[in-house]
Amino acid sequence: MALKKRIVLWGLASLALACAVVVGAMAYFHTYSPDRGKYPVRGIDVSHHQGQIDWRRVAADDVAFAVIKATEGGDHVDTAFATNLRDARAAGLAVGAYHFFTFCRPGADQAKNFISVVPNDQPLLPPVVDIEFGGNCPQRPSPEQLNAELQAFLGPVEAAFGKTAIVYLTDEAEATYAGRIAARPLWLRSLLMEPDRRDWIYWQYHNRGRVDGITGDVDLNVLQGGREKLAELFAAP
Predict the structure, then answer these.
(1) What mean pLDDT, rounded, does the chain reach?
(2) Are 173 and 190 within 8 A, CB to CB?
């Protein structure tokens, strides 16, 4: 009987310890932020999924820049792009636009879509092309195939906006394509861990962050460099 009681107590103690570990891990995940002394400039990326955003509250919550989804593929336009771009700019943030690159439309068509939607008569951060597998067309092009279509996108876009584009890669896309497609500054997704390479402009360190002015989760990023680097990226070409 005493042995059975000890087993029960050990089981309860183990369960309590496991729960404490889980709670601690969740708290660490939700509160993680890179060293602000090393990376003082924080930003977010958003789309219509964030719903209505109070950009003045966002700007007051230690957010300096926002990269906003504009387009996807050859004809899709994010329904919140124009509002988000206007209001984020009015709140004083450095703003930019990104395009979700699909594997089943020609790069030239996708470039036309992005250029037709994103205004170029006011300062913008460099255009971003988002390459990832999640939510994309099922076929995965070879690096050679992707590079050909990506070049067809980058040429017109960079000419239209007068800036070298930034390529966003998730961990999986980086492993598949980095070093094998058009050489551009990178935006790397590496959750809770600093990227193991240094050739990046933005680092997306959280995909379920919280920012005042946004209900629910939002992607959090840091810029490699200080306010001077941000001003350089945002300056007119």
Answers:
(1) 90
(2) no
232 flagged as catalytic: no
Give, for 68, the enclosing helix (H) or strand (E).
Answer: strand 65-72
CA 136 to each of CA 72, 104, 139, 173: distance values in angstroms, whole numbers, following the listed order: 10, 9, 8, 12
pTM (two decimals) = 0.87
Which helix (H) or strand (E) segment is 147 a member of? helix 143-161
Give the phi and the psi of residue 142 in degrees, each rounded to 5: -70, 160
What is the C-alpha separation between 174 and 181, in angstroms, rounded?
10
Distance from C-alpha of 218 to C-alpha of 45, rounded to nearest angstrom: 7
Of 72, 132, 149, 194, the active-site residue reads: 132
Q: Which residue, 123, 99, 156, is CA-closest to 237?
A: 123
pLDDT (average), residues 202-217: 97
207 membership: H or E segment, kind and range: strand 200-209
**Residue from 195, 198, 196, 217 nearest 206 by CA:** 217
- Judge whether 221 and 186 are in contact, CB under 8 Å: no
Residue 27 has pLDDT above 80, yes or no: no
Rounded CA-CA distance 225/36 in Å is 11
